[in-house]
Structures are given as structure tokens and as C-alpha cells.
Batch of 2 targets.
Target 1
Amino acid sequence: MATLCLISINVATKTTIRMELLTRHLIDITLTFDGTFFLPYQLYFTSEQLHRAYPNIDAFFALKRHHDPSLLFMNSFYARYAR
């Protein structure tokens, strides 16, 4: 079973903070059912949530470092979560 939510919000600071908290809460609920979540454009999920949902993510990051050691191909997802 899959559930998809598309939520459009006003991009005000207060609204963004509330959306981040809601997203993290929904991801926590998903993880209690051993689920995963789509890796969205907005990076509201925590590193812990990412590792719980995608236990092999570090292997992915290692492969990326192997094939792109100079970080020619970079994005905000990799910069934030691939430590």
C-alpha cells in the first residue's frame, strides 16, 4: 500500500517551520510501520529518519564518493546527508 500527499503551502517562515514539523511527524508514523518515504525536494527529514527508511544509504554515498571523488555532481541532498 502507498500513500501520497501533495501539499501546497505559502512559503512564509512560520508556515515552513510548521510544514517541516508535520513532515517529520508523518515520516515517524510511516517508519513505525517499517515504511519508507519519497525523498522530496524539501529536505525536512532528519538524518536518523533517512537511515531508518533507507538502511543502505551509506553504501550509496560510498559509491558516489568512489565514482565522483571530486564532487563534480553535487546537490543539497548529498551535501546535507552524506557526511
Note: The chain has one domain: 13-81.
Target 2
Amino acid sequence: MNHARTAAKRAATGSLIGLALGDALGLPTEFIDVPRIISWYGPWRELDLPGNGRVTDDTQMGHDPDTPETRHGMILSC
């Protein structure tokens, strides 16, 4: 198996997983400015992780292979 291809697939998978995790963890504070987040939740290092994370349309759009970038060859398939 081609090691470069395997590394690229692993990097792409990690990016998509990171997108979903960041989206789920950031959902409660989306569109809220930093001073308000701190006043509501306190310092971020003291925040509890949510029990059940939810993804938004940001994750769904990030996982959609039919985007203008892929249609025009800007992202190469692995």
C-alpha cells in the first residue's frame, strides 16, 4: 500500500473528526462574544464537557463531498 496515500487518508479522517468534535463542543457558545461567554460560563479551563455533544450544519457541510472546491478539482481525492 502507498504510505503517502495512507497518511493522506488518515490526515483527512482526523480533520473531519476534529471538525465534528470542535463543532459539538463549540455549539453552546456559537455566535456569542467572548466577554459574554466568560460571564455566563466562567473561564474555559473550568468548563465541564457536555454530556451529549451535538453537531450542527457546519459538520454536515464539512462532510459533504459535493462542494464547489471538490467539483472544480481544488481538493484532490485520496
Note: Residues 3-26 form the longest helix (24 residues).
